[in-house]
Write a structure and sequence with these properties.
Belongs to the cytochrome P450 family. Pfam families: p450 (PF00067). This is Cytochrome P450. It is built from 15 helices and eleven strands. The protein is an alpha+beta fold. The chain has one domain: Cytochrome p450 (Orthogonal Bundle). Helix 7 crosses helix 8 and helix 10 packs across helix 15.
Length: 400
């Protein structure tokens, strides 16, 4: 390679910056919080015990009437540590491996739908996969009617801006529609799961919450947070990863023919460039020292995950390129801060990558799989992340 030639990724052979598919027209972060774009500063904030969760409608959901226990997403201190320690066993790499056969069967069923129909929206398949896998872990397996994936999708208020400090009032009609969707979710999915586990506890989250004395309102609120922070985000990442792999024959070949370690490295690198949750908010619960700067109590920060993940001081001078297994400083995760960091780091990180890999590996072995229509990109202001819709794919011919 001459001095004028761009750096070539040793694993994929790709050169130059990768196309960022999901943030081409991303809305700007509001001005109510101080922006953080450097990786080191962002990680320090996320790891500080005095920097508390301020996003995902924390001020609203954590004070739901009738709820005695805030969801773990909004807990802090010893109570949060205890809950995370107790529920971590559902998401460890060892435990996730036990889900492999069920994930594989589900992935085969979903790809069977594609094979039968010849053409489907990939984002519909990814929604069903993400919801059904997470439902097994949570314990939402006794629904009175099928269609839980669509019920969860309907109660996510995409237009409600979750930036701290903004009013959370939605139009009356939207409030009524969301209330109806939540009521259906509780009646058809959550309540029968609670009844079944009161009779016969299982090895799942709902059974554990019941053992701690959580009431129905506590449990449905916890299920809602898992629906938004877990199932929905995994759905979007599966679509984003498939989009990258289908656009680049070199990347697709490296993925399909790679080992599991290599495939996971590719997925982590895509996630670094395309974080599903683009902004994380933190509020200083007390004066804290941030790299020598004293941050006063009450200060709110907006961590730009996408920019932090492109920090050349950490990711190297070719930070915008898609190069799996890049050399990183000790302690830096391959996906950057896309799963967060510190005490609120996403507990389902291993599961999300595993189910994405199981599904996409099976999908992409079909040589005649092609894109009919690339997805449209919109933004969900609750999770502060992208939504990919209408991602139409087909096989060369329908198969019986």
């Amino acid at each position: 390679m001459t001095a004028s030639e761009p750096a070539r990724c040793p694993m994929t052979g790709l050169t130059g910056p990768a196309p960022v598919l999901t943030r081409r027209d991303a809305p700007p972060v509001g001005d109510l919080a101080q922006p953080v774009e450097s990786y080191a500063r962002a990680r320090d904030l996320l790891r500080s015990a005095q920097a508390q969760q301020a996003g995902f409608l924390a001020d609203t959901v954590s004070s739901v009437p009738g709820s005695q226990h805030p969801p773990v997403l909004y807990l802090e201190g010893e109570e949060h540590t205890e809950m995370r320690r107790a529920t971590a066993r559902y998401f460890t790499p060892t435990q996730v491996e036990t889900y492999q056969p069920a994930i594989a069967r589900l992935a085969d069923d979903l790809i069977g739908k594609l094979a039968q129909r010849g053409e489907v929206d990939l984002d519909d398949l990814s929604l069903e996969l993400a919801v059904r896998v997470a439902a097994e872990v949570v314990g939402l397996t006794n629904s009175r009617l099928p269609g839980m994936d669509r019920r969860i999708e309907r109660f996510i208020p995409a237009s409600l801006n979750a930036e701290p400090g903004l009013p959370t009032n939605a139009p009356l009609l939207e409030n009524m529609q969301q209330a109806a969707a939540l009521s259906l979710f509780y009646t058809l999915d959550v309540q029968p799961a609670i009844v079944a586990r009161r009779r016969a506890p299982g090895d799942d989250l709902i059974s554990y919450l019941l053992s701690r004395g959580y009431n129905d309102q506590d449990i449905v609120t916890e299920c809602v947070t898992y629906g938004t922070a877990g199932m929905i985000t995994t759905r979007e990442f599966i679509s984003a990863a498939a989009w990258h792999l289908l656009k680049s024959p070199e990347l697709r070949a490296a993925y399909v023919h790679g080992t599991e370690k290599e495939r996971h490295a590719i997925l982590h690198e895509i996630l670094r460039l395309e974080p599903v949750v683009g902004t994380l908010y933190r509020r200083a619960a007390a004066d804290l020292d941030l790299g020598g700067e004293v941050v006063p109590q009450g200060s709110v920060y907006a961590i730009d995950v996408g920019q932090a993940n492109l920090d050349p001081a950490v990711m190297g001078e070719n930070a915008a390129s898609l190069c799996p297994m890049r050399e990183l400083p000790r302690g830096v995760q391959a996906q950057g801060l896309s799963f967060g960091d510190g005490h609120h780091r996403c507990p389902g990180a291993f599961l999300a990558i595993k189910e994405t890999d199981v599904f996409l590996r099976r999908l992409l072995i079909w040589n005649d799989l092609e894109v009919v229509r690339e997805p449209s990109v919109s933004y969900n202001e609750v999770i502060k992340g992208y939504e990919l819709r209408g991602f139409r794919v087909r096989l060369g011919k329908a198969r019986a």
